[in-house]
Amino acid sequence: xxxxxxxxxxxxxxxxxxFWILDGNNNITDRWITVTIPGDVDGDFDVDxxxxxxxxxxxxxxxxxxxxxxxxxxxxxxxIDIYDVVIMCYFYGQKYP
Length: 97
Ligand SMILES: [Ca+2]
Ligand SMILES: [Ca+2]
Hints:
Blueprint: E1 2-4, E2 15-22, E3 28-35, H1 49-58, H2 82-91
Parallel strand pairs: 1-2
Antiparallel strand pairs: 2-3
One calcium ion binds next to helix 2.
């Protein structure tokens, strides 16, 4: 579901939300975020083997490293380590209908 986001609206699960960024030069950029299950690093609304493959490819990397995938940093501490894998394992097998 692609839904235009309204200011003040809370994003619910399984949504792709668009928003605009206005930079200091008055340039507007359109961006999308996906609200999904923790561990769904590829954004297809499930946590499966493809998500594990992706987190394994980035395992051990820190923010700024080549190959770092922000979606794989599930606890937001700027590295991809066992704590992120634990979160993914907790949600493994879940999907939105
Ligand atoms: Ca997935
Ligand atoms: Ca992390």
